[in-house]
Amino acid sequence: PIHPLKAMVWDYPLLKRLIKDNDVIHHHYPYPTMEFTLLRYLKQMSNKKFIITWHANIKNSRWSWIERIYNPMIEKLLGRADLIIVTSPQLFEASTILQKYKDKVHTIPLSFDPKYSSVNSKTYPSNRCFELLFVGKLRKYKGVEYLIKAVENLEVKLKIVGNGEELQNLLSLVEELNIKNKVTFFSNADDNQLAVFYKKADLFVLPSINEAEAFGVVQLEAMANGLPVINTNLASGVPFVSLNGYSGITVEPKDVLELRVSIEKIISNKELYELYSLNALERVNMFSREKMAQAYMEI
């Protein structure tokens, strides 16, 4: 067997040639296999522009197990970088390792695919049951179990679009709560089906419970369809995307009661619902593909 760190070092044998043939090296962090390899080629990068886009703090990622030995190494790359891009101000504020490089840090938010978009805001659905939507991987950090518990006693329909290791546990929870009539799972939706889910939904909920949820692009896709958003108060880009009291409501992670009350507040108030919908379309404009591309071109 090969030690995983040794395997990482030799994963990208063509990188040296790519560095030689190009003027700008743009790296997306965290990606430890690539980062360990980049460290080998720092000398070859001496006359190149080196940009790092920092997507998540490693302590909240699947790579957290190497953090203790990893952070001293990543500081060598951060020291060499000409610029460090974060996807939200919150991501920078929550990172202790980035603080000493603050003069290099710029914020460029992520963007959404324009195919998930509508020009019209939502009209309050007064003659039918409210339809709630969750889209994403069914992993523990997504907090979908808290959303399921929150809708137990609400007159709503919930569609859960996604797949993952938590699927069976979530199915069992729905069975246990006896709410199969209001919660429906869609495990293998394609892009066209997903676009329809966004268009038919009334309210989007992202109940993630920790900063492994670094940004939540699905919020942008929902907001581009005029959906108000309920998200969680994480030290990441999540509450930066949809703003509390503007395009939806931000609640504390794992708080079933607060989540339930927030859903009730939005679905019971026509004026508030339609205001959040209008504001969602307004807010999402700052996350366009064109604006993100232009920001990178400028740097």
Weakly predicted, low-confidence segments: 1-9
Q: Main β-sheet, in a few words?
A: 6 strands, parallel
Contiguous helical run count: 13
N to C succession of SSEs: HHEHEHEHEEHEHEHEHEHEHHH
Helix content: 25-40%
Radius of gyration: 21 Å
What is the spatial order of strands in the main beta sheet?
7-6-5-8-9-10
CA-CA gap between termini: 43 Å
Mean pLDDT: 92
Kindly estimate the percentage of residues that lie in beta strands according to DSSP.
15-25%
Brief account:
39% of the residues lie in helices and 15% in strands. The protein has 299 residues and is an alpha/beta fold.
Describe the structure.
The chain is α/β, with parallel strands linked by helices. It has 13 helices and ten strands. It is elongated. 36% of the residues are buried. Mean pLDDT is 92; it is low at 1-9.
Which descriptors apply to this entry?
single chain, 299 residues, alpha/beta, 13 helices, disordered N terminus
Any chance you could write out the topology, listing elements then pairs?
Elements lengths: L3 H6 L5 H7 L2 E6 L2 H9 L8 E6 L12 H14 L2 E4 L2 H5 L11 E3 L22 E6 L8 H7 L5 E6 L5 H11 L5 E4 L4 H10 L2 E3 L11 H7 L5 E4 L5 H4 L6 E4 L4 H12 L2 H15 L4 H10 L1
